[in-house]
Design a protein that fits this description.
Number of strands: 12
Bound molecules: beta-D-glucopyranose
Shape: globular
Number of helices: 15
Length: 440
């Protein structure tokens, strides 16, 4: 490999998630998920916005995939809406839901683009939440049934499987501090959610191995390794605690290391582990994905967790997230050793910018700079021998940014929410050039 080129087999793609782009929320048999409910609670989401229409990808598959091909994207990471495929979170398959995802995969293949499917990206059927959601062990088994349904119905068309996206977010933000759906804030429910998410992942991997399907299967985390804010020993302790809380309670069990003792002894997390669970959760995976956006230094404080974000001086994106590309390198190095040198993909990385359309163009220089910086450290990682196999920009198109509604734009492609017209931004053409030349 020439020093300045990405390897020939390095995959460049982009990512989205069902609730954020599909729309068609009440069509063809889809039933409600926790985000449909949550967005109706006053004050939870910017102006009560929801995913009813979103970027309307449900009706625009051909147009969107053709655009991906024009940009040169080689892979599309999308997620499946559980309640579109299994209405009410039940056991009866909705043929129309399956037909939609088959059409999406077939269209991707027709354009020579790989189909990378995430089974769960936060949109739990509301009926399962009514029974306790991720705090209920039954949800892990319901997830296994859902995963098995997808293996059977879509297994011939999927090139890469991801069991779930960022358990940290749907467990902690969903059940720990209640900022995201379903909006619960209970420490015991949070600990249960973590364990049941981990268990659900393991059960889904076990079932997958029985299918004989050959596409790789893995999981996506959003690890961060915050720097200690100062040279004080107590801030170093804060940083260690942050890693346990953000990373190790999810990936420890998956890599057969179990739950870190600090999680129980210091954070008071009571994981409802049953006999045999840890073996299921540590079923071998083929790769893992890292979603990386930013990193903030931490300092020690007297809260239960014992750490908090410290101020930062770096330049920020429209999310007010500092741009810290070196943090990605630290995460890649640490994860490489923690995982035992398993293949890794950057499954999300991207920037929300104050985009605006001027004479039919979007000059998003900030986003291009952001991508360039992160591609730069990825090359360093590859040169060091880290088996980094691909990069998925978040997001392919502007979409529903959870509690921020439609006020934050991450896309390579602009979505005009009034007309649903698409316009590739300058960053899309920058990506095209990177993909063609394999240079950043
Ligand atoms: C999530 C996406 C989200 C993005 C930007 C990630 O944590 O997987 O769904 O849109 O961050 O906030």
């Amino acid at each position: 490999m020439a020093d300045n080129l990405f390897p020939k087999d390095f995959l460049f793609g982009s990512a989205t998630a069902s609730y954020q782009v599909e729309g068609a929320a009440y069509e063809d048999g889809r039933t409600e998920c926790i985000w449909d409910e949550f967005s109706r609670i006053p004050g939870k989401v910017w102006c009560g916005e929801n995913g009813n229409v979103a970027a309307d990808q449900y009706h625009r598959v051909e147009e969107d995939v053709a655009l991906m091909a024009k940009i040169g994207l080689q892979a599309y990471r999308f997620s499946v809406s559980w309640s579109r495929v299994l209405p009410n979170g039940g056991r009866e398959v909705n043929e129309k839901g399956i037909a939609y995802y088959r059409f999406l995969c077939q269209t991707l293949h027709r354009y020579g683009i790989k189909a990378c499917l995430t089974i769960y990206h936060w949109d739990l059927p509301k009926e399962l939440e009514a029974k306790g959601g991720w705090a209920n062990r039954e949800t892990s088994y319901a997830f296994q049934f859902y995963a098995e349904t997808l293996y059977r119905e879509l297994g011939d068309l999927v090139d890469m499987w991801i069991t779930m996206n960022e358990p940290f977010c749907f467990c902690y933000l969903g059940y720990g501090n209640g900022v995201h759906a379903p909006g619960r804030a209970d420490w015991n429910d949070f600990a249960s959610a973590v364990h049941h998410a981990n268990l659900a992942h393991g059960l889904a991997v076990e079932s997958y191995r029985k299918t004989g399907l050959k596409a790789p299967i893995g999981i996506v985390w959003n690890p961060i390794l915050p720097r200690p804010a100062t040279g004080r020993d107590e801030d170093k302790i804060a940083a260690e605690r942050a890693s346990v809380f953000n990373n190790e309670i999810y990936m420890g069990p998956v890599f057969g290391k179990g739950y870190p003792t600090l999680a129980t002894s210091e954070f008071g997390l009571k994981f409802p582990i049953e006999k045999g669970d840890e073996e299921i959760i540590s079923a071998p995976i083929d790769f893992y994905g890292i979603n990386y956006y930013n990193e903030r230094p931490v300092e020690r404080d007297s809260s239960l967790l014992g750490f908090k974000d410290a101020g930062t001086w770096e330049e920020e994106t429209a999310m007010k997230w500092p741009i810290v590309e070196k943090g990605l390198l630290r995460v890649l190095r640490w994860m490489d050793s923690y995982s035992g040198h398993l293949p890794v993909y950057i499954t999300e990385n991207g920037s929300a910018e104050e985009d605006c359309v001027k004479e039919g163009r979007i000059h998003d220089k900030g986003r291009i700079d952001y991508i360039r910086k992160h591609l730069g450290v990825m090359k360093e990682a590859i040169a060091e021998g880290i088996p980094l196999k691909g990069y998925f920009y978040w997001s392919f198109i502007d979409n529903y940014e959870w509690t921020f509604g439609y006020t934050r734009r991450f896309g390579l492609v602009w979505c005009d929410y009034m007309t649903l017209r698409r316009i590739p931004k300058d960053s899309a053409w920058y990506m095209r050039d990177v993909i063609r030349s394999r240079e950043e």
